[in-house]
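Tutorial handout. Part one gives the primary structure; part two gives the three-dimensional structure as tokens.
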Amino acid sequence: EVQLQASGGGLVQAGGSLRLSCAASGFTLDDYAIGWFRQAPGMEREGVSCISTHGGTYDADSIKGRFTISSDNAKNTVYLQMDNLKPEDTAVYYCAALGFCIVDPALADFRFWGQGTLVTVSS
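Part two.
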């Protein structure tokens, strides 16, 4: 059974850092690109970052220079290191398996999703 498990969310002050994890099971990171998406209350879901099956990365403009996506193939896990967090980063963060690394939700080739993990950034 293919599955993604997101974890690592929490409460942090503006300027702080968190690292999210997306653990894959039932498949390897050679099979799908993995993207991070987020949805704030009252807002549309937006793409955050993506890592391809060969380790290439793509970041949304809103987080460039602050978030870093990476993978550990031995652990079959993708990470999202979030630095210099801002209150507007507050959202439920989801990871998803993708056919290719496009994080615009209108264009992304979603295959399946993990559950969300809540990130709350205080002012």
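Part three, for discussion. The first strand starts at residue 3 and ends at 7. The radius of gyration is 13 Å.
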